[in-house]
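Quick one before lunch.
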Amino acid sequence: MYTLATDATPRSTPPKNEHEILHQFLISLGKAIDAKDAGTGSHSSEVARIAEAIGWAMGITGKEIRWLSMAGLLHDIGKIGIPDSILSKPGPLNDEEWEIIKTHPGKGEAIVRPVEEFGKKKSVADIVRHHHERFDGLGYPDGLMEEEIPLGARIVAVADSISTMLQDRPYQAGRNFDEAMEEILVCAGTRYDPDVVEALMSVREDIKHILPGIDR
Ligand SMILES: [Fe+2]
Ligand SMILES: [Fe+2]
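Model of the fe (ii) ion complex:
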């Protein structure tokens, strides 16, 4: 018979606090997303860790640094609503398929917004919606530019690109860390917020060390 543990029951490890349990649950959800998207086994965790490191370097603390980490884990959750035939296509996508891919930030926002904490201004839902906006306004889904884009989304955009460049894709081998950094620098001011890129460069060695299997 199953019996509930009581306070008198000795525990081998101390109980986790709720923040820690929630964070671990979001890591699980991130792994579910990664399992659906070919070649990205640790993408969501990598994005969260890189985004958090950049966030600290920019002086972000408290609940906003937690939102950043959570949004990193959940940024691609909308891919659950994208057909596998598109996500795993072994070659470049056609225009129609791209239009479908571009719906994943909006789908992701809708998935996370019911969590009251995530629906607050500039919190997780806003970051998930805007993680593919570009600093020059040429991104999607809303074509926001510069400070119109929530800061957390500008940070996740950089972290997302780094992780994506390092991963092997079905039609393209991953780049090494230095090549990825070079590409980010080249696109500072167009694709990426130059202040975010500057913060990234100040912690680039730390990031190199927190990413597993980085030397490939
Ligand atoms: Fe995405
Ligand atoms: Fe991503």
